[in-house]
Specification:
Layout (H helix, E strand, L loop, with lengths): L1 H14 L4 H10 L8 H17 L1 E4 L7 H13 L14 E5 L15 E4 L6 E4 L4 E5 H9 L7 H12 L13 H24 L13 H14 L1 H7 L1 H11 L7
Parallel strand pairs: 1-2, 2-5
Antiparallel strand pairs: 3-4, 4-5
Helix pairs in contact: 1-3, 2-4, 3-4, 4-5, 6-8, 8-9, 9-10
Bound molecules: zinc ion (ZN).
Length: 255
Amino acid sequence: MFTFFKSRRRARLRATPISEAWRQIIDHNVPIVQRLSPADRQELFGHVQVFLAEKHFEGCGGLELTDEIRVTVAAQACLLLLHRDTDYYPRLTSILVYPSTYVVPGKHSLGDGLVEEGDEPLLGHTQSRLSALVLSWDSTLGGARVVNDGQNLVFHEFAHQLDFESGDTNGTPLLQSNGQYASWARVLGAELDALRRASESGAPSVLDEYGAENPAEFFAVATEAFFERPTELRDKHAALYEQLRAYYQQDPAAW
Ligand SMILES: [Zn+2]
């Protein structure tokens, strides 16, 4: 029954047009959205309505939250949800935003599904058990406005959230079939090995070498490249591109 009411409420939210002000924020701050077809843009705007109605945002470190911040985060997070059945990052309840890089006080281990970006101080991090995701606003905005560099903090952190949906933090999100799990493991495993070799030898790669850390970081980095450097990824890593295309149900190289 709960699910019924939830899906009805979400359908109502998706059908509500976003305001002109929000549309302008997206146009200005998240230019990748302009590459989408009109139908996909509408789908995205509907997801943004649901996302902003359900997720709690908090400004940290003196940051005053604005619609610009919330909408800029939401538009990027929701781009990862198009064309798929989605429960809107069900493990995530709160998004904490700092003005810039920040330091997590106290000791924190890297166990328990914690993933964090950059050496101290951090640009962003998230954790499967804490239901929270932390972002620095300047990196969020920079990642959104520069579309072609393969660096996008929000895509990266929300890819980790998709990874968590499967129950493990292992670089494998929920896939559609057993066959898909087998090919995902084969292709992404081989690509991770190749990235590690490239990283050790200093050879250039479409994929940020941070992805060589572990399978979870590899999936997050590959997601950034898939949306921001799709043509290069397709040309140089065709099998990886195909796995991501099948998962995301999107073909950014064709935009
Ligand atoms: Zn990461």
